[in-house]
Design goal:
Layout lengths: L3 H5 L4 H9 L3 H9 L5 H7 L8 H16 L2 E11 L24 H13 L4 E6 L8 H11 L5 E5 L5 H7 L4 E5 L7 H7 L8 H5 L1 H7 L4 E4 L8 H18 L4 E5 L18 H14 L4 E4 L5 H7 L6 E3 L8 H4 L15 H10 L3 E3 L12
Parallel strand pairs: 1-2, 1-8, 1-9, 2-3, 3-4, 4-5, 5-6, 6-7, 7-8
Helix pairs in contact: 3-4, 4-13, 5-13, 6-7, 8-11
């Protein structure tokens, strides 16, 4: 079956990288003046030359976001169901070779997490697991969803890639959105970061968003792990993937996340870091490239950065996040996937948004909005 791989195979990482880094001021100015921006324009906006036009990019990005999304910011929170994982990933605290205490939440523990998260005000939740299909596969997830669904209007998941039929199976259990990150689109170095486990299969992971789209999920979330490889080149391939998916699954909504590698136990920090200024450039470039895309920023980022970024294109942020199973009801009883930066509680984040003239939204959408719900 055809899919994104046919598009991806037409592009070469090094050639794309050279194209991005060869963009000129004239290319950036042309992109800024264009009413409908294509992938070449996006390459110019994320190029080193694009950094010379950050103020104008930010102005246009803010205006487009206000026009499309208004003064609203969606709040979400991740709930980690398990830190068990069958993959070795060099950047992740859950990596199989990391000698940590492994925990998968029981039904009683899930109920405790639900109670705390509901008390925080949330009506939308993101369920996260490590990639361990035998322990936290579809059967486990269905049982967890039976407990979770009555308490939330919408549920998103971020777990190991599944088959198309699995995604179809999960829809009636309340799953509306699926987030799956390629981590890096550099096929030549991908195995270096993923030496063992199912995740080591670059092509299998690359084809997962197609399966989600064919299954008819309401929303697909994309992103690359910023800092793993050259952020400009990886982001171009993410935009290429997004462009393909939007044309192929035009009834589906899409979101882009901006995870930067954060410290975690036994994790080596990246060789390709990006500055705060770089991330601002990337956020603005995505908004100018696609006025309808949802842009999400997590608690990996600092409070000062997030307070500034919400004005420049971001439409959803997490708040009060814990990155370990049972973290909301049991403190630090299990290993965190990574260290968060913005530790403010959701109530303080909501107050900050209100003070800046924004309306915090505690849910994603209502199932009644989906025709076949």
């Amino acid at each position: 079956m055809s899919g994104f791989k046919q598009v991806f195979d037409r592009y070469d990482w090094e050639r794309v990288k050279r194209t991005i880094y060869s963009k000129t001021n004239a290319d950036v100015e042309k992109a800024l003046q264009s009413s409908t921006k294509n992938l070449e324009d996006f390459a110019a906006l994320i190029s080193p030359a694009g950094s010379n036009y950050l103020e104008e990019m930010a102005r246009q990005s803010h205006a487009l976001t206000q026009k499309r999304f208004g003064k609203t910011i969606q709040l979400f929170i991740p709930m980690y169901l398990s830190n068990e994982c069958q993959n070795i990933c060099t950047y992740c605290g859950f990596s199989l070779d990391n000698n940590i205490r492994r925990i998968t939440l029981s039904e009683a523990q899930i109920r405790k997490e639900i109670a705390v998260i509901k008390d925080l005000g949330y009506d939308h939740i993101l369920l996260v697991t490590g990639e361990a299909n035998k322990t936290v596969g579809v059967d486990y997830l269905k049982k967890a969803l039976e407990l979770i669904r009555p308490h939330f209007s919408s549920i998103s998941i971020e777990m190991q890639p599944l088959e198309e039929n699995d995604y179809r199976t999960l829809k009636p259990f309340g799953v509306s959105s699926v987030f799956v990150y390629q981590e890096t689109y550099n096929r030549g170095t991908y195995k270096t970061y993923h030496p063992k486990g199912k995740k080591a299969n670059f092509g299998y992971r690359l084809g997962t968003p197609d399966k989600i789209g064919r299954a008819g999920m309401y929303k697909i979330g994309l992103g690359c792990l910023l800092g793993l490889e050259d952020w400009r080149t990886d982001s171009f391939f993410t935009a290429l993937h997004l462009n393909y998916l939007e044309k192929t699954y035009w009834q589906t909504k899409f979101s882009i996340s901006f995870p930067r590698i954060r410290p975690a136990e036994n994790v080596t920090m990246p060789q390709f870091p990006l500055l705060d200024r770089d991330l601002i450039q990337l956020i603005c470039a995505y908004r100018l490239f696609n006025k309808d895309i949802e842009l999400s920023l997590s608690t990996r980022e600092s409070r000062s950065f997030r307070d500034h970024a919400i004005k420049l294109g971001i439409t959803s942020i997490s708040a009060g996040s814990k990155t370990n199973p049972g973290g909301y009801s049991n403190g630090t009883a299990s290993l965190k996937q990574f260290e968060i930066s913005d530790e403010r509680p959701p109530s303080e984040i909501a107050q900050m948004l209100t003070s800046k003239g924004y309306v915090p939204v505690w849910k994603d959408w209502d199932p009644i909005l989906e025709q076949d719900a």
